[in-house]
């Protein structure tokens, strides 16, 4: 299991514990935890409605792919630590990370 923190649109922070051995994406965990993540494209990196900002712990996540960057760079608010939650896999690298929701619901 891996534990990370999610900051919602109102600034409230909540720890989340997720299995790191099932190949799940951050988007799937956020949706299962009932956060307002639209994920319109179903995790194909085509819509950017699962946009998050990694406030702490980005170093272990690796770099965004070109497809992911294309979507992120088209957003009105794009940060150096922006990622698409559908492209971030739940793994040890997320331990202790702080993720801020940025998707369309803000």
TrEMBL record:
One of its GO terms (biological process) is P450-containing electron transport chain. Pfam families: Fer2. CDD domains: fer2. InterPro entries: 2Fe-2S_ferredoxin-like_sf, 2Fe-2S_ferredoxin-type, Adrenodoxin-like, Beta-grasp_dom_sf. Transmembrane segments: none annotated. Its cofactor is [2Fe-2S] cluster. Residues 1-105 form the 2Fe-2S ferredoxin-type domain. PANTHER family: FERREDOXIN-2, MITOCHONDRIAL (PTHR23426:SF65), FERREDOXIN/ADRENODOXIN (PTHR23426). Keywords: 2Fe-2S, Iron, Iron-sulfur, Metal-binding. Belongs to the adrenodoxin/putidaredoxin family. One of its GO terms (molecular function) is electron transfer activity. This is Ferredoxin.
